[in-house]
Amino acid sequence: MTVLNTGTKQSVVLPLGKVADSPDSSVIFIYEWTNPPQEIKVKVGETFFLEPEPKSVFKLIEVQQDSAVIQISTGGKITI
């Protein structure tokens, strides 16, 4: 079965008996550098930056229930 998001035109194939990820997965990071801490909502595939370094761009690559994979500005990936 294939499910289509009519707003974004993205589709997700749902194989029988298997778990599938939604392309609309997102996370909310709590950035504690700011006072008060700031919530940053990011969808998979989106880029974001953190103060005080707006030139350092990060990209959310993958979301799991208890972790996220982020591509850092140097091209490496970290799991948080």
- What is the string of helix and strand elements? EEEEEEEE
Strand-residue fraction? over 45%
* Strand elements, count: 8
Give a short account of the largest sheet.
4 strands, antiparallel
What is the typical, i.e. mean, pLDDT? 84
Radius of gyration: 15 Å
Structural class: mainly beta
Q: Between the first and last Cα atoms, what is the distance in angstroms?
A: 32 Å
Shape: elongated
Number of separate helices: 0
Spatial strand order of the main sheet: 5-6-7-8
* Uncertain stretches of 5 or more adjacent residues: none
Q: Report helical residue fraction.
A: under 10%
Can you offer a commentary on this structure?
By secondary structure, this protein is mostly beta strands. Helices cover 0% and strands 50% of the residues. It has a domain at 44-80. It has strands spanning 2-4, 11-13, 26-31, 38-43, 47-50, 53-63, 68-71, 77-79. The strands form three sheets. The protein has a four-stranded antiparallel sheet with strand order 5-6-7-8, with no helix packed on it. The N and C termini lie far apart (32 Å). The model has no long low-confidence stretch (mean pLDDT 84).
